[in-house]
């Protein structure tokens, strides 16, 4: 921002004590005024560019985070669907396993009498073993799905927190820019008013000097007139 002593740097610290000192040290020129105004506008433009860049970067980050949240929500929905399927299949297999246990018991009772029943019993035993293994795999898969669901939920929470941080940072920078911009414009207006006042004082002083010159010229003419008149009287 504009330093508080910028006015003294340009017009000199003795300006308030000697407002009619028009030396090169304390004088004011239009170039000084123009340079000061140009510098203030440049600083405002720089702040505006910085805010624009931050807004663009914040927008890209917000879009990315929102996209990531949508991906995680879709993945969470898919995991929920798979978990529900696993639960349904688990219930079906449990029922079928219980049925096979009853069949196995019936088969064992009839095995000694029927060769065909013995063969079916062996087949059922093998199927029972396979279903038992598949049931164990489904239990493990269900546990993995629960862990993955927890991780996805955690990532969604972190993504939402990051999005909130970006929104708060964006709001903070916009508020800061507004304060700096208002302060800079206020200082620029004050400097312009002070320089306009100094310009008025300069014009008034020039008029006084012109009046003094005119008075001196008149006095000089009167003096020469009286001098020549006296010479003529002496002659």
From TrEMBL:
Q: Which GO terms describe its biological process?
A: actin filament organization; clathrin coat assembly; endocytosis
Q: Which InterPro entries match?
A: HIP1_clath-bd, Sla2_fam
What keywords are annotated for this sequence in UniProt? Actin-binding, Coiled coil, Cytoplasm, Endocytosis
One Gene Ontology MF term:
phosphatidylinositol-3,5-bisphosphate binding
Has UniProt tagged this entry with the keyword Coiled coil?
yes
What cellular-component terms does GO give this entry? clathrin-coated vesicle; cortical actin cytoskeleton; presynapse
Pfam families given in the database record? HIP1_clath_bdg
Coiled-coil residues: 30-148, 188-215
Primary location class:
cytoplasm
Domain Huntingtin-interacting protein 1 clathrin-binding spans what residues?
142-221
Q: Which family does it belong to?
A: Belongs to the SLA2 family.
Q: What is this protein called?
A: Huntingtin-interacting protein 1 clathrin-binding domain-containing protein
Organism of provenance: Aquarana catesbeiana (American bullfrog)
